[in-house]
Amino acid sequence: MKRIYILTIVSLLVAVSCKKEVVRNEPDLPFNPFDTLTFSEEVLETIEIDSSSFLGLHTYILKPTCAVPGCHDGNFEPDFRTIQSSYNTLLYAPVVKNDLAGTFTYRVVPGDTALSWLHERITTDDEILGRMPLYDTLYPHERAKITQWILDGAPDVMGISPILPNYQPVTYGFLAYENDTSGIRLDENRADLMSPIALPPDTEVEIWFGVYDTDEFGTFMPSYNLTYNKARISKEPFFFTDPVEYDMEVEPAATPFMGPLYWDPLIPIPYYQHFTFNTGDYDPETFYFLRFYVKDADHDQPTEIPNQGSPLYWITLFSFYVE
């Protein structure tokens, strides 16, 4: 009787400890698409199970310790049932819980334990947050292996470290003013939202190009740090090799032009890149197409906006004709 009483108490403690994490109570575990991605037995047999590799971490630590009923068994992420689900719900996977300061974005950031939520959860001394797994059952050498794996770039079972994609700069449109920003706004002179702009003849027109970049973590980065900063105007919608090229000026970080968001004039947004041209240099009643070129630090070549792969309506949007 005493043994049954002790087992009951332990069962209750486990249930209470996990109840904040469990989000499903169905008897069947939820489907995880990563579980369909399995390495063949032939491939796995050729890989030596090094306890410091991810295959070793999953085999000796994550699966037996964490993928237990009611915990990381598919009821909630990270899902440690298989090698594939474990890796894909850890590497650059967004955190659900966080510390009070909101320090962490991803569960594992290769090479950086300070930004990896997994590392924080297995090493924290915060009594309220609590160290994982339950009851701090990892040995020091096991925590050390996870730490070293992260510092080594968090490679997968094939020894490849992931790279988070860094996107090229993106535009939110452009503005056109007669003479300068104190003049008449001209980019609203369209037959409809996606038609070319009608510009007055023999007029100085100032174009402000709206563009932003993001880093590998998706953080918004204003465009004053972008380089190259060119604009081209062509009669041909898909030929921009020979047309006249304009150098765009770039406003300092502290003093952008706060203009309206192209499709919502009630939202002010910073514009840094701009250039001026005279419509007297262009034939009347002829369509001309604009292209902008900026370069961030993560790409070898400038980003062309719009480009050959842009939708036709986007190419038409970046066009004008002289009345």
Name its key features.
elongated; 323 residues; 2 domains; 7 helices; alpha+beta; six-stranded mixed β-sheet
Question: What do these coordinates show?
Answer:
By secondary structure, this protein is of the alpha+beta class. The protein has two domains: about 15-25 and about 45-150, no CATH class; about 170-320, no CATH class. The chain has seven helices and 13 strands. It is elongated.
Distance from N terminus to C terminus (CA atoms, Å) equals 96 Å
Largest sheet: 6 strands, mixed
- The helix/strand class is alpha+beta
Shape: elongated
Bin the strand percentage.
Answer: 15-25%
Low-confidence parts lasting 5 or more residues at pLDDT below 50? Answer: 1-27
Radius of gyration: 28 Å
Provide a count of the helices: 7
Quantity of strands, as a count: 13
Q: On the 0-100 scale, what is the average pLDDT?
A: 83
- The arrangement of helices and strands along the chain is HHHHHHEEEEEEEEEEEEHE
Helix content estimate: 10-25%
Domain count: the total is 2
